[in-house]
Amino acid sequence: MELVAIDPLNPDPAVIARAAALLKAGRLVAFPTETVYGLGANALDASAVERIYEAKGRPAYNPVIVHVATAARALDVVQEWPELAERLARAFWPGPLTMVLPRRASVPDIVSAGLGSVAVRVPAHPVALALLAACGLPVAAPSANRSMLISPTTGAHVAKSLGDAVDLILDAGPTTVGIESTVIDLTSDRPTMLRPGMIAVPDIEAIIGPIDVATHATAASSRPSPGMMDRHYSPRGRLVIVGAGELPDLVRREREAGSRIGAMLIETTVRNITVVRMPADAAGYAAELYRALHNLDDAACSVILVERVPSSIEWFGVRDRLERASRSA
Asked: For the CA atoms of 107, 144, 134, 72, what is the dihedral angle to 10 degrees?
């Protein structure tokens, strides 16, 4: 494993060319997107994509998102490009929106968990876009971490989680959005949000009209999208979501039980525990969420108390990540 620092705004062409050559050779390259770091492989090479699953310990029924350099290059992997897809691409690409569409036969089954669809997006990060343009390939890239654990928002997070399973890590510093993309399924008559993100339901409905919102899946059957596992994004410590009024009693009980306590708090103050102060706005909170969880994990907190976030629509993606992280294995 090699970690190479790269300018997030003006990536070194020589470093990008080297990373592109590795992808063409079937190797694994971790790179930044605006959401989280992705573990990339040639999406048209089944053996290369299999290395992603092996490195992550990812179940075969959980598909991966394919990243492309432009909306036009999405046609390399999708069989159909409906008007709704065109409208969403014009509104949100490059950006943190993934669309699920019928896939071409050239896309290996392993990419899509054997389903007839493929998840695709154009990321909004200069390093990712430069890499995609240089390699000329669609790149399968789920989050660059062990399956079900905390997603990475820095190169150091990738190295800590995957180590020598990755051939090269392009470290461009912290990501900006901080949680994974919104996923919208366009394979049926009525579009359905499969995974919430920072592009919210009203944002999408303003472009294409009413959509449905899927519930999470628990059975070991193929998912149409990543992010539909019942438990996901989890720290090693037990994560508990609590209301502000519940914190004092819960802290007392955990102390009596001998727990090493960490907390992610927006406004509440609690003494004599490890506290990460979180932003009060949804976008700021999302950008800091995984970094905070990594820090509390590194502090060996056996329990992480998270102050309940607001219930308004702009917090939907954050609530989804916290709820999945809090569920038992």
From this structure: 50
Residue-averaged pLDDT of the chain: 94
pTM above 0.90, yes or no: yes
Other CB atoms within 10 A of residue 114 CB: 12
Euclidean distance between CA atoms 78 and 80, whole angstroms: 6
Q: How far is CA 45 from CA 16, 52, 60, 62, 144, in A?
A: 20, 11, 16, 17, 18
Q: What was the pLDDT predicted at 272? A: 85
Asked if residue 108 has a cis previous peptide bond (ω within 30° of 0), the answer is: no
Handedness of CA 144, 145, 147, 148 (dihedral sign): negative
What is the Cα–Cα distance from 52 to 289, expressed in whole angstroms? 24
212-271 per-position pLDDT tens digit: 998 765 455 565 666 555 656 789 999 999 998 899 999 999 999 999 999 999 988 888
User: Which amino acid belongs to residue 292?
Assistant: A
Q: Which tokens is 192 given?
A: 């359905």
Angstrom distance (rounded) from CA 133 to CA 127? 10
